[in-house]
């Protein structure tokens, strides 16, 4: 049963933005260590498998979504193989991008200069994404059907195009400059 008085008092807290608990870096690290210790105790000898599974979570979600969109979903072995390929290529991409980055950029007074610097980073990322797509497609060509391959290529191309569109939209916003906020009509 809900305590209505407590619930009534909670509403103002949420409205005032006090609905989050902020942890320091040390507290976050300690909480994470405790959580991992509990996982290790509960799943015991499967803990390493859990860590490996968790490392590839993003790729698993991508492959699961891709597979379910197919007319004939991928076999479990093919799904796992695709996850491993995507994980390896994503790691390679991140390492390549990290080696080419010069570190955090200095704060720029001019926002258009700031966007120009950010835009360069996005274009580097875009080139990396294209390279990633080519490598994933090269490695999957042998075990996907032509239809599955085409759909994977289309999906990867769409992700790249989404980043291109975000860059273009930001360019337009920068060209238009600051604008007055528009109040919604009641």
Estimated share of beta-strand residues: under 5%
Largest sheet: none
Count the E strands: 0
Residue runs with pLDDT of under 50 for 5 or more positions? 102-110
Structural class: mainly alpha
C-alpha Rg (nearest Å): 23 Å
Note the quaternary state here.
Answer: single chain
Task: Report the mean per-residue pLDDT as an integer.
Answer: 83
Question: SSE order, as H and E?
Answer: HHHHHHH
The helix fraction, in percent, is over 70%
The N- to C-terminal Cα distance equals 37 Å
Number of helices in the DSSP assignment: 7
- Large-scale geometry: extended
Describe this structure in words.
75% of the residues lie in helices and 0% in strands. It is an all-alpha fold. The longest helix is centred in the last third of the chain and has 31 residues, at 146-176. It is extended and about 60 Å long. The model is unreliable at 102-110 (pLDDT under 50).
Summarize this entry quickly.
The protein is mainly alpha-helical. It contains seven helices and no strands. The chain has helices spanning 4-15, 25-43, 47-55, 57-69, 76-100, 111-140, 146-176.
Record the SSE blueprint.
Blueprint: H1 4-15, H2 25-43, H3 47-55, H4 57-69, H5 76-100, H6 111-140, H7 146-176
Short descriptors:
single chain; mainly alpha; 0% strand; extended
């Amino acid at each position: 049963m809900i305590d209505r008085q407590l619930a009534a008092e909670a509403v103002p807290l949420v409205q005032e933005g006090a609905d989050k608990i902020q942890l320091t870096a040390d507290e976050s690290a300690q909480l994470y260590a405790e959580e991992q210790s509990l996982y290790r105790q509960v799943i015991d000898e499967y803990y390493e498998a859990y860590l490996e599974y968790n490392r590839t979570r993003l790729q698993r979600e991508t492959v699961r979504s891709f597979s379910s969109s197919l007319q004939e979903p991928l076999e479990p072995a093919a799904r796992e193989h695709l996850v491993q390929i995507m994980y390896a290529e994503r790691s390679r991409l991140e390492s390549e991008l990290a080696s080419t980055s010069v570190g955090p950029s200095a704060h720029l007074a001019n926002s258009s200069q700031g966007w120009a610097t950010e835009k360069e980073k996005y274009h580097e990322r875009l080139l990396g994404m294209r390279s990633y797509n080519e490598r994933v497609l090269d490695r999957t060509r042998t075990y996907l059907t032509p239809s599955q391959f085409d759909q994977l290529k289309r999906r990867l191309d769409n992700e790249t195009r989404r980043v291109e569109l975000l860059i273009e939209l930001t360019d337009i916003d920068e060209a238009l400059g600051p604008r007055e906020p528009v109040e919604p009509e009641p």
